[in-house]
Design a protein that fits this description.
The chain is of the alpha+beta class. It has eleven helices and five strands, in the order ααααββαβαααααββα. Helix 5 links the parallel strand 2 and strand 3.
């Protein structure tokens, strides 16, 4: 709040200074002028709040424009990196990318809503970016999921991904091995692949992309060139998809 107050005062003083040339004033004249400004703002605080509101709007617009530029700049890595899981309708007219972490509570909250959106729409291409940021268990889960994709393919990956998103226990090597066994997957091959260079490269590439796009939290969604930082309720996500589609 103090930042906005300072900026707003600067804006107001700058406007007055242009008309009155504060540099040409004497020290006494400048002090009197500043006192008059202070008195006016104290008597009319709504003016200051209006200025703060304008500054907030400008700042938000700048952030949105910056996010659009980032999404457009890194479109190739977002939408066609050659290693990320592609679900939904691969030929859909709208692409949603999600940076997620299996231990992220808001990712888990968003999971059924995103699934419902994709299923109900029928024309959304959905890309998962494994982005483990919540400790060793998060990294272990992502290593496992990526290894499953490499060893057993996309269908097995989706089964594992969906199960891990709904999983509420501790992520350990033993719990992951049991999950692989329950899905009739090759536990030994997956375990070896988890420690391999290909899995490490996928996670590192995703982290570098997130860093370049100023993504620090999960979930983060990119809907074409619109970036949504954090959990977005189903109805709002549906509206955003519709607007992006209408604007094309």
């Amino acid at each position: 709040m103090l930042k906005y107050v300072a900026l707003a005062l600067g804006l107001l003083m700058g406007t007055q200074a242009t008309a009155l040339d504060l540099d040409a004033m004497t020290d006494n004249e400048r002090a009197a002028f500043r006192a008059e400004i202070r008195s006016y703002l104290l008597e009319n605080p709504e003016v200051l709040m209006e200025a703060i509101g304008v500054l907030e709007q400008r700042e938000q617009a700048a952030k949105v424009n910056n996010d659009v530029t980032l999404a457009q700049t890194y479109a190739g890595q977002l939408f066609d990196d050659g290693h990320s899981f592609v679900g939904g309708n691969p030929d859909g007219d709208i692409t949603i990318v999600e940076f997620m972490d299996y231990r992220c509570g808001f990712c888990k909250k968003a999971f059924p809503e995103v699934a419902a959106l994709i299923a109900g729409d029928g024309n959304i291409r959905y890309i998962v970016k494994e982005f483990p940021i919540l400790g060793e268990a998060s990294t272990l889960a992502s290593q496992f999921a990526i290894a499953v994709k490499i060893v057993a393919g996309d269908e097995a990956y989706k089964d594992v991904h969906d199960t891990l998103m709904e999983f509420r226990g501790d992520v350990t090597q033993n719990s992951l091995d049991r999950l692989a066994e329950s899905l009739d997957l090759d536990v030994a091959a997956i375990t070896v692949e988890m420690r391999g260079g290909e899995v490490a490269k996928v996670i590192n590439d995703n982290r570098l992309l997130a860093q370049a796009m100023q993504i620090t939290g999960t979930p983060t969604f990119i809907v074409q060139d619109q970036m949504l930082r954090g959990y977005v309720p189903f109805a709002q996500m549906e509206q955003i998809v519709a607007k992006v589609r209408d604007d094309r």
